[in-house]
Amino acid sequence: MEKSRLISKLGNLYSTKLYYPISLFIFGSIPLLYKLSNVPKGLSSNELLTRNDLINHTYNLNYLLHHLSTFLFSSYLVVLNYLNYHSLILIRLSGYAVGLIAIFLFSYIARTFTNKFIGTITTILFATSLWFLQIIRNNHNLQYYSFAILLGIFISILYYRKKSINFIVILSSILLGLSFYVPGMIWFALLFIIINFKAIRLEIHSLSRKYKLISLAILLLILTPIVYESVHSHNLIYSALFIPSSINLHHLLTQFINYPKMLFVQNNPVLSSSIGKLPFINFASAIILIFSSIWLYKNKTNTLTEYIYFSFILDWVLCTLNGDRSIYIILPLLSLLVSVGLFYLYGEWKRIFPKNPYPNFLANLLLGLLVASIGLYQILLYFIVWPHTPQVLSLYSHYL
Prior knowledge:
Blueprint: H1 2-15, H2 19-33, H3 45-55, H4 61-65, H5 71-83, H6 88-92, H7 96-113, H8 116-127, H9 130-138, H10 148-160, H11 165-178, H12 185-195, H13 197-206, H14 209-232, H15 235-241, H16 249-264, H17 283-298, H18 303-322, H19 327-352, H20 357-385, H21 390-395
Helix pairs in contact: 2-7, 7-8, 7-10, 7-19, 8-19, 8-20, 10-11, 11-14, 12-18, 16-18, 17-19, 18-19, 19-20
C-alpha cells in the first residue's frame, strides 16, 4: 500500500513537471555545498577579517547604511551579526542562493535556445565549471557575475514569447537598477536597451500610465542607495562604471592581447583562480565553440545573436581597461555558447540520420559521455587540484 502510494505521488510529480526544477535544485546544491568549509581548508585574509568583525558585532544597521552599494551581502552579514553566527561555512554560504539562481537561469535559457536534452546536460557543465565554483563558493565580490549577463537574455526570451509586457517592463527596471551594483554590468544593460530600443520604445508607449510610474518608482528606489553613497565617495562611480582612475597605454595593450589568450590558450599562473597555466575555457569546450560560431553566423540577424556578439566586444574593452576580473562577466555567455555548439552538432547528426534510432541513441550516448567526462574533470580540478596550488595555499593561509 505504502509503495503504491509513493509511486502514485512520484507519478503526479512527473505529470506536473515539478520533477525537473526539484532535480535541478538538488543537483545544483551538491557542488555548491559539498565540503564548503574545507575547500580550501584555510581562510583568506578577507574571510578572517569578516569573521572577526562578526565576532565583534561590527555588522549592524549603521554599517548597512554606509555599505548600501553592497546591500545584499551586507544585509546577509547584518543578519548573521544579530543571530550571533560567525562560522566560516556561513560566511561562504552567501553565494549559495546566487549560485542556484544562476543555474536555474542558465538552464531555462539553454533549454530555450536548444532543446530539453542539450539544455539539461550543458547545465551540468555550467554548474560544475571551475570558474563558477570558485566565485560562488569563495568570492562574494564576483558572485553576481555568474548570472548578471544572463538576466538580459532571460528578459529577451520572455518578451519574444509574448509574456505579460507589464511584468517584463518592471523586470527590466529591476535589471537596469541592479546593474549599477555589479561593476561593469551597466554597460551590458545599456547594450541590451540599444539593441532592443525600437521594441522597448513601442512597448513603453503602449504601457499604461500606472505601470510607467511603478517601473520608474522601482528604478529610483533601487538606485537610491548607490546615489546616496556616490555623494560621499566618487570612487564608487568609477567602480560601478568599471572605469580605471588612471590609464597606462602599455598596460592597456598587454591586457588587450591577454584577453583571448587567458580564455583559450594560457592563463596567468600567479592568479588564485588559475591552475598552473590552464586557460579559463578547456580544450573540449573551445572546440565546441567553433560550431557555436557557425550557428551565430547563420542566425546573425537575430537580436539575441547581436547581443551576444557585441557583449564579447564590450567585455574585451572592459578587460583591456580593468584586467582579468572582467573575464568573469562573459564566462556564463561562453557556457551558453557551448550549449548552442552542442545543439548545432546534434542537429547536424540528426539531419544525416533523421529516423534511424541507433545513430540517435549513439549521439545521445556520446554527448552524455562527453558532458560527464568534462564535468568530472572540472569537479576534480576544483575539489582536488585547485586547493593545493601554491597561489591558493598562500591566499587561504589563515587557520583557527
